[in-house]
Amino acid sequence: MTLSEKTWVGIGLAGQFFFTMRFVVQWIATERKRKSVIPESFWYFSIFGSLILLVYSLYRKDPVFILGQAFGSTVYVRNLFFIHKEKKDAAASTME
Question: How far is CA 47 from the centre of its chain?
């Protein structure tokens, strides 16, 4: 395996690590609350993992993987948008 191939495998593994960490974070939060919880960090791990995997899938020229990661990234960013909007609205309502 060439150095370039090893580097790309490393990039793919890094993306998979972030993608896996989102489940670990969600699992720990759920166990602590004893109910299903999706913490904000879940969405950040999702974005980082998805974007890194998107770059990796572009390098591999895998259209199925590319479409899946591109769509997922959009959903994760949109969820963070709503989280930050809710926080901003809550802060504004306490100022009134």
Answer: 3
Q: What is the pTM of this model?
A: 0.78
Q: What is d(CA 72, CA 15) in angstroms, rounded to the nearest whole number?
A: 13
2-11 average pLDDT score? 92
Contact 42, 25 (CB under 8 A): yes
Helix (H) or strand (E) holding 52: helix 40-60
DSSP 7-21: HHHHHHHHHHHHHHH
CB 66 within 8 A of CB 57: yes
C-alpha torsion sign, points 23, 26, 32, 37: negative
**For residues 48 and 20, is the Cβ–Cβ distance under 8 A?**
no
Q: Does residue 19 contact residue 50 with C-beta atoms inside 8 Å?
A: yes
